[in-house]
Design brief:
Largest sheet: 4 strands, antiparallel
Mean pLDDT: 86
Helix content: 40-55%
Distance between the termini: 39 Å
Strand content: 15-25%
Number of strands: 10
Number of helices: 13
Shape: globular
């Protein structure tokens, strides 16, 4: 590390922000975020024995850095996501597969006599297909689907067969729909319906089945099988979490975030779906809580009303899921302070509800200082 770079790292503040690593030509090769910039950046150069080969290769090429401060860690996450998409740094692409997003498609097409579960980097283009995702980990999707198939005994090794049962049927992993029997096909289709209900959050029978298989294996002291079904369960829960993210942000909810910055100020952020519409720093010593409540309510009505036409058409896609995940994870964390604003609160008759909700938000945020 050069003397100039050493001085820059040592002078970084212990505040939230984004750092931009540069090579000898001045090109940005990596963008990262941090709650405390100096500590995070120092970790690349000191005590780096545990670094992965990709990180070690990155460090060898760092010749300079730049940084951008944010008021809060949440904003650092969002800024990092934005800059990565704008700059497309080489090492961000190397460290994250650009085809990392995967979809589950339930497809009904010839020559298969029954619906099939497909996993792909793009959703199925087949008419009438049911699409779930995008998911950020292909391996998690594959493990979850494998666990569902195995636990429900639909792990067919000849899915397009209509006349003979597959090898997995003899192993107890397939109910035999490949043999063309009406009863087996009907049972299989019922399982597919259960899986659809699971992915749409309407039924958790499949999860209960996986838990039962895990517990049964543990009681038989078959710890290897129990561990396998535990891993399947974890993968399925990851899928359900991702669907919750998409449902939450895809509904284009109006969200007010009030995040403490220090003893004198808060950061006010308005979000619609996965889009940040407005942000400003509020100085607490300049206004009392009643004035802050009134100001936030007036701004919320103006911003959310004006955005109702444009933001409402925003579709959840693979390019929005990163922002959606950041927002959802923050809102569900124990340190967050936010308010969901129903559309009716933005109308004149909803002023009381809006202001009461904001007053509670302001109070909880102040108490958390």
């Amino acid at each position: 590390m050069t003397a100039n770079l050493t001085d820059k790292v040592a002078s970084l503040p212990l505040t939230p922000g984004v750092y931009l690593m540069k090579d000898g030509l001045g090109h940005v090769i990596y963008v990262g975020k941090a709650k405390q910039l100096r500590k995070r950046v120092q970790s690349y150069f000191y005590n780096n024995k545990g670094h992965s080969p990709k990180v070690k290769q990155l460090v060898k090429h760092i010749r300079d850095l730049d940084y951008r401060l944010t008021d809060t860690e949440f904003e650092a996450f969002m800024l990092e996501c934005q800059l990565i998409k704008e700059i497309k740094p080489m090492y961000n692409r190397k460290m994250k597969n650009p085809l990392a997003y995967s979809y589950i498609s339930i497809v009904d097409k010839a020559p298969s006599p029954y619906r099939q579960i497909e996993i792909g980097y793009e959703p199925s283009a087949e008419a009438g297909s049911l699409i779930y995702g995008p998911y950020t980990s292909r391996s998690t999707v594959e493990r979850a689907v494998l666990g569902i198939k195995e636990s429900q005994r639909i792990l067919c090794s000849s899915p397009h067969s209509r006349s003979s049962r597959c090898l997995n049927h003899s192993l107890g992993l397939c109910i035999g729909m490949c043999g063309g029997g009406e009863a087996a096909v009907a049972q299989y289709e019922a399982v597919i319906d259960e899986m659809i209900c699971l992915l749409e959050g309407r039924d958790s029978g499949i999860v209960a089945g996986l838990e039962a298989r895990m517990e049964d294996a543990a009681l038989r002291f078959d710890f290897e099988t129990a561990a396998k079904f535990r891993d399947y369960l974890g993968a399925v829960h990851s899928l359900l979490q991702k669907e919750q993210v998409i449902e939450f942000t895809g509904a284009n909810k109006n969200i007010i975030v009030l995040e403490p910055v220090d003893e004198q100020s808060h950061k006010l952020i308005f979000i619609k779906g996965s889009v940040i519409l407005y942000r400003t720093l509020l100085a607490r010593d300049a206004l009392n809580e009643g004035q802050i409540t009134g100001m936030i309510a007036a701004s919320a009505r103006e911003v959310f009303r004006s955005s109702s036409q444009t933001a409402a058409t925003e579709e959840m896609s693979r390019h929005k899921i990163d922002e959606a995940q950041i927002i959802y994870s923050y809102l569900k964390s124990s340190s967050s302070h936010y308010l969901l604003v129903p559309p009716e609160w933005l109308e004149d008759e909803g002023v009381t509800g809006l202001e009461e909700g904001i007053a509670e938000l302001v109070q909880s945020s102040v108490l958390d200082m």
